[in-house]
Design a protein that fits this description.
The chain is mostly helical. The chain has one domain. It contains 3 helices and 2 strands, in the order ββααα. The chain has a two-stranded antiparallel sheet with strand order 1-2. β1 and β2 form a beta hairpin. α2 crosses α3. It is elongated, with a radius of gyration of 14 Å. Bound molecules: zinc ion.
Length: 76
């Protein structure tokens, strides 16, 4: 177990060191369960909107932001 801070809200969480290592390798943020659930539900809502044909520029920009981790999340 490793004590790490959630990259989103900063709360301290205990994660398996192998999980943290994989997340860093994939340039993915370390998230607490609350932030993760919020991100996943937001992502699902945006995808649902896309399937329903509610395609908007704002929707696409949000989806793109969720899919591509930004360069400033690099840990190397
Ligand atoms: Zn969090």
């Amino acid at each position: 177990m490793l004590d790490v801070d959630c990259d989103n809200c900063g709360v301290r969480i205990g994660l398996d060191s192998s999980v943290v290592s994989v997340k860093h390798q994939l340039h993915k943020p370390v998230e607490c369960p609350i932030c993760r659930n919020m991100r996943v539900s937001k992502e699902m809502e945006l995808l649902e909107n896309e399937f329903r044909g509610m395609k908007s520029e704002e929707n696409e920009t949000k989806l793109r932001r969720l899919r591509i981790p930004s360069a400033d999340q690099s840990f190397f």
